[in-house]
């Protein structure tokens, strides 16, 4: 064989075909110097692999006392004796046939299985089949002297010994079988540490109800009798049903009920039609029921014919539905183009899900056959905002199978391609008017106008919490006419009457404090079977952002379980007995991490081919007694209690099993709960993405509160029950708002005075103080809306849509505007110092007024795309609705460039303006006072311009964390990282909060004006 099987390595027999590597042939028996001969797979297997036979002593069925081997001594060949282990493998033959020196004969030819008897005082080894055959094969005839009058070794000695049980004869009989077992050996759990130690096993009983659906449900029966004529003529009515209609008491008329494919008095003409075969698959909504409206429509929007199918995912996933769609005219109008449209609705929620279109590609065919497989989308279709098709009284959608085509889903009472034709809706209340002649009925109604009620579901129909689904009244003779049950996971059967025989194993996984809790966790279950290779079953589970542990159920019978966090493996469970219906509590701890071979070996070993590298795998377990497991590209190895490695094949490339219908976005891995009849799926998202289908991203340079806190706020709970991070965020927001409003308001009053605005710098600060107040108000509104919206205090309505588009845009716009205005202040101060007495104040004010307008205009234009592409997106699984932006790839690049521009340039303007101001002012003073040192002048300039330096330095320091977080963190890999990014987000508002401290208090002029205003306010108050 060519496959490397770990249990067969270095066992004394060549099981692997030679492989040429670097000029030499390698097998499973080469380079075994680091392999212990006494290991899990050679221990007590009846073959002495070790030179002293250490692998065969102290075995459960051993004839001899501890540390002894069976032996027939030369001085008494009539009895079986015992030889101490210290005399075995010492190069001296002490036993007949050299049984204590097994390598003497084995070295001659490893492939000759029976050559195990070493002749006395000779190097010759003979075939054990020649023992006691009456012929001398050894030089000293010792092959016959041990026979005790027996001839024919296999025919007499072995059969005799097996009947008498004489140990000596039994030893001789099995002497020829002392060779490695050539049968396939698989992975075994022996001598392994058990983890976890405590394991609770639960047994369950099965309760079976024998009542059938038929005995419990009495559907409506049609008592009317129809006189169907016996059809002795097979050609009569041409596959139709002949019936007789009574004209009077004595006269009857025969007519034919034709199938959809034929028409005429005797069904003799074939209908032009579309023959549709439909198979449907749902990936979510185990307890949902869908109805599919199937219509044949021409290019003018005229419906030719229609039909519908009711679909239950748990029952109908393998069903193929056959539908015939006829044309409204015979023959059909060949000048028109036709297509089949399929529209899906959820009968439980009475909501629209999706649509498909299939054009009739060969209209000249009288019968067009169409086979379609539909995959029901995970969520309801989202109407398009900008589209070429004008839907007057409806909404525009894309087709699932052709995103380039759009159509109008009209409001009730309207129809047509653009929803311009009005009609009177005659469908029953609670139903949906899809078209003038088509009604979508709720679950408990049926009929052309949904006025008939279903009476087939009773309280006894579905047991044990099962949900009853009425049958399709159109199919009286079909099983689909019977009511059907959607069972809970614990039960099955037509009526959910059977409890599953084995209760699933409950696995409770907690995390050590040193291990970051991931958003999703891969779990690999390994089932051991000594007759087969280990079977690997892998699954993935999501961990809620408010959870610090994971509880799951599995019906998989397993022995070993690994946790996989971004390809870092941790041993979860290791049991010698199969885990069935158990309750296991385990913990992911750093000490149970499986190391990579690249951590354990140097490159000269780790880069070798597997056949050479694997021979070193016992060394890590021997050198590191705390090592639990390690892995390479194809194997995972466990360290046993003897500090030896025990390895098995392992598939590291676990990928999604949704095949070509990957429902996850942004390269997420999709996993179905069932390959044949899936009813749910789960997405394992890569870093920087989250959401049910990985639809949300944190790769943007400017994270919003929705991305940072959206998943930490728990719905339907009071504020006191919210996580600690939410409470701290609320307190911090209130503090920033209160202090910031006071600071900005007093700054606003200060810069209203004419004295503080005699130069352009005062105008910039005046505009900046107004921007600061507006920013803080918008910030408080944004945080309040987010908390109330995620706690489900307010509902999703037009106000929530407006706040989503406006508030985040205003925050980005105002913060950028604030930074640029402060940068203008730094530039003007630098110019003031540079020009000195030549500085023109009037010109400075004129330029400032223009620059304020330019800053407002540019920042507004560069952020306006945020308003256009920001929207509310639902995450149904997590019961969240987040306000996010959806950009194309080019627009995402543009947004990143704009963000970098607005972050970086004001920062560098402040920084370089400060450096320029100090250096320029010092040089001017040094030219005036040449007798003073540069260091002294520099100190004087620091003191003289401290108000400028303090403000710009503070702005640089406060902007630095934002720059660092934006450009070094890459993205928020999980909503659990909220603290780090929340701090960075709040830092953005600290300059607005500290406006008074940054710009007024360091300046003597501004401080004097501030004190004057403060005193005036105190006088008014008194």
Automatic annotation (TrEMBL):
Protein keywords: Disulfide bond, EGF-like domain, Membrane, Transmembrane, Transmembrane helix
Subcellular location: Membrane
SUPFAM superfamilies, A to Z: EGF/Laminin, Family A G protein-coupled receptor-like
GO CC, any one term: membrane
InterPro entries on file: EGF, GPCR_Rhodpsn_7TM, LDrepeatLR_classA_rpt, NOTCH_homolog
Occurrences of domain EGF-like (ranges): 453-497
Positions of disulphide bridges: 32-50, 44-59, 132-147, 487-496
Keyword Disulfide bond attached: yes
Keyword Oxidoreductase: no
G-protein coupled receptors family 1 profile domain segment(s): 743-999
Protein name: Uncharacterized protein
């Amino acid at each position: 064989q060519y496959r490397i099987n770990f249990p067969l390595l270095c066992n004394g027999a060549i099981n692997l075909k030679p492989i040429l590597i670097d000029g030499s042939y390698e097998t499973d028996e080469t380079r075994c110097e680091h392999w212990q001969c006494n290991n899990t797979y050679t221990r007590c297997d009846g073959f002495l692999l070790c030179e002293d036979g250490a692998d065969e002593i102290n075995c459960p069925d051993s004839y001899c006392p501890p540390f002894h081997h069976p032996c027939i001594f030369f001085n008494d060949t009539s009895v079986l004796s015992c030889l101490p282990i210290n005399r075995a493998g010492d190069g001296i033959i002490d036993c007949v046939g050299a049984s204590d020196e097994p390598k003497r004969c084995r070295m001659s030819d490893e492939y000759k299985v029976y050559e195990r008897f070493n002749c006395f005082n000779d190097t010759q080894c003979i075939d054990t089949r020649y023992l006691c055959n009456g012929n001398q094969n050894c030089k000293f005839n010792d092959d016959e002297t041990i026979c005790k009058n027996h001839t024919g070794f296999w025919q007499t000695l072995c059969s005799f010994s097996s009947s008498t049980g004489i140990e000596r004869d039994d030893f001789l009989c099995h002497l020829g079988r002392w060779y490695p077992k050539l049968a396939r050996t698989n992975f075994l759990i022996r001598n392994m540490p058990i983890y976890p130690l405590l394991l609770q096993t639960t047994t369950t009983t099965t309760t079976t109800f024998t009542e059938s659906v038929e005995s419990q449900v009495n559907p409506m029966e049609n008592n009317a009798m129809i006189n169907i004529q016996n059809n002795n003529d097979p050609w009569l009515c041409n596959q139709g049903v002949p019936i007789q209609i009574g004209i009077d008491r004595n006269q009857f008329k025969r007519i034919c009920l034709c199938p959809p494919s034929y028409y005429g008095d005797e069904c003799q003409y074939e209908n032009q039609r579309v023959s549709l075969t439909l198979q449907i698959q749902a990936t979510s909504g185990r307890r949902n029921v869908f109805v599919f409206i199937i219509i044949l429509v021409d290019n003018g929007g005229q419906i030719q014919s229609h039909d519908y199918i009711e679909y239950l995912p748990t029952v109908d996933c393998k069903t193929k539905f056959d539908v015939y769609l006829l044309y409204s005219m015979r023959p059909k109008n060949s000048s028109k183009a036709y297509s089949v449209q399929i529209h899906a609705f959820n009968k439980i929620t009475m909501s629209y899900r999706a649509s498909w279109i299939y054009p009739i590609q060969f209209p000249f065919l009288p019968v067009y056959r169409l086979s379609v497989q539909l995959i029901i989308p995970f969520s309801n279709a989202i109407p398009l905002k900008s589209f070429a098709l004008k839907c007057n009284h409806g909404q525009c959608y894309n087709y699932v199978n052709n995103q380039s085509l759009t159509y109008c889903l009209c409001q009730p009472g309207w129809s047509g391609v653009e929803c311009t034709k009005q009609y009177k809706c005659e469908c029953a209340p609670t139903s949906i008017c899809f078209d003038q002649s088509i009604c979508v009925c709720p679950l408990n109604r049926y009929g052309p106008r949904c006025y008939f009620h279903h009476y087939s579901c009773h309280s006894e129909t579905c047991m044990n919490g099962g949900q009853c689904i009425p049958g399709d009244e159109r199919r009286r003779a079909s099983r689909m006419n019977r009511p059907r049950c959607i069972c809970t996971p614990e039960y099955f059967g037509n009526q959910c009457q059977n409890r599953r025989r084995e209760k699933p194993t409950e696995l409770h996984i907690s995390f050590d404090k040193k291990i970051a809790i991931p958003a999703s966790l891969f779990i690999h279950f390994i089932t051991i079977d000594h007759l087969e290779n280990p079977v690997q079953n892998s699954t993935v589970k999501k961990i809620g952002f408010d959870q610090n542990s994971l509880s799951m159920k599995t019906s998989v019978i397993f022995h070993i379980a690994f946790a996989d966090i971004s390809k870092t493996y941790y041993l979860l469970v290791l049991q010698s007995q199969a885990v069935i219906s158990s309750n296991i509590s385990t913990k992911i701890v750093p000490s149970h991490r499986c190391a990579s071979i690249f951590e354990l070996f140097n490159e000269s070993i780790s880069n070798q081919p597997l056949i050479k590298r694997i021979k070193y795998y016992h060394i890590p377990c021997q050198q590191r007694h705390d090592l639990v497991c390690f892995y390479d590209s194809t194997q995972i190895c466990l360290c046993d209690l003897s500090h030896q490695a025990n390895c098995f094949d392992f598939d590291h490339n676990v990928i999604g099993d949704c095949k070509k219908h990957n429902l996850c976005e942004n390269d997420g891995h999709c996993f179905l709960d069932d390959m044949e009849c899936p009813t749910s799926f789960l997405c394992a998202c890569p870093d920087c993405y989250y959401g049910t289908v990985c639809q949300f991203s944190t790769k943007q340079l400017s994270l919003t509160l929705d991305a940072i806190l959206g998943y930490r706020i728990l719905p339907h709970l009071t504020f006191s029950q919210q996580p600690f991070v939410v409470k701290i965020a609320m307190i911090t927001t209130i503090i920033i708002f209160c202090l910031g409003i006071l600071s900005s308001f007093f700054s606003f009053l200060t810069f209203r005075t004419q004295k503080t605005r005699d130069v352009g710098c005062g105008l910039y600060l005046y505009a900046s103080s107004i921007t600061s107040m507006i920013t803080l108000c918008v910030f408080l509104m944004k945080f309040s809306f987010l908390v109330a919206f995620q706690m489900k205090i307010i509902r999703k309505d037009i106000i929530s849509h407006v706040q989503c588009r406006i508030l985040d845009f205003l925050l980005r716009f105002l913060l950028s505007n604030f930074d640029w205005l402060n940068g203008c202040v730094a530039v003007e101060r630098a110019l003031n110092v540079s020009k000195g007495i030549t500085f023109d104040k009037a010109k400075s004010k004129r330029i400032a007024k223009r620059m304020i307008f330019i800053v407002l205009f540019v920042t507004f234009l560069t952020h306006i795309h945020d308003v256009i592409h920001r929207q509310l997106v639902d995450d149904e699984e997590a019961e969240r609705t987040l306000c996010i932006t959806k950009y194309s790839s080019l627009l995402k690049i543009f947004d990143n460039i704009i963000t970098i521009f607005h972050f970086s340039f004001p920062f560098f303007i402040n920084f370089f303006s400060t450096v320029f101001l100090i250096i320029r002012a010092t040089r001017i003073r040094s030219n005036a006072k040449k007798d003073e040192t540069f260091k002294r002048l520099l100190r004087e300039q620091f003191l003289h311009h401290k108000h400028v330096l303090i403000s710009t330095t503070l702005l640089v320091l406060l902007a630095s964390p934002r720059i660092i977080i934006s450009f070094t963190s890459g993205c928020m890999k999980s909503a659990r990282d909220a603290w780090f990014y929340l701090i960075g987000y709040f830092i953005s508002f600290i300059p607005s909060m500290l406006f008074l401290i940054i710009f007024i208090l360091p300046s003597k002029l501004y401080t004097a004006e501030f004190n004057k205003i403060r005193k005036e306010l105190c006088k008014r108050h008194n």
